[in-house]
Design a protein that fits this description.
By secondary structure, the protein is mainly α. The protein is built from two helices and no strands. The protein starts with 8 loop residues before the first helix and ends with a helix.
Length: about 140
């Protein structure tokens, strides 16, 4: 081969293969990177532990919330039932009062008629008494 000619692809490949492929490692940088990875690993584990604790607390809180909700619904149901019973009782009392007031109205009408008749009788008696007094 002539050295003045550019290298052919086959010649170029053989030159590339003869170059050493080892990468120099900086052991201090590697150790620092490894330490940082361990710190991150520990930090991730701590975060996961805190998340697990929070999830456990949330689970307990949700369970407690369900009990409070169920208790509130039961209490509300009792209150509504009591109100319905009280309302039903009040309606029955009002019906009785309406009947009683109906009778009172009838009695009031009768008393008014009686009062009118008594007034007529009183007027008649007074008229007769004047007539008797005028004769004597």
């Amino acid at each position: 081969m002539d050295n003045s000619q550019p290298p052919s692809p086959s010649t170029h490949q053989s030159d590339a293969l003869s170059v050493p492929t080892s990468i120099p490692l900086d052991m201090d940088a590697y150790k620092a990177l490894e330490n940082r990875a361990l710190e991150l690993h520990d930090s991730v584990l701590e975060s996961i532990e805190r998340l697990n604790q929070r999830l456990d607390q949330m689970h307990a809180d949700v369970g407690e919330s369900e009990l409070v909700y169920a208790s509130a619904v039961d209490r509300l149901n009792e209150d509504v039932s009591t109100c319905i019973q009280d309302t039903t009782f009040m309606i029955a009392v009002c019906d009785e009062l309406e009947k009683d007031f109906g009778q009172v109205n009838q009695l009031s009408t009768m008393v008014k008629r009686l009062d009118q008749r008594l007034n007529v009788m009183l007027d008649s008696l007074l008229h007769q008494q004047r007539a008797i007094g005028a004769k004597s």
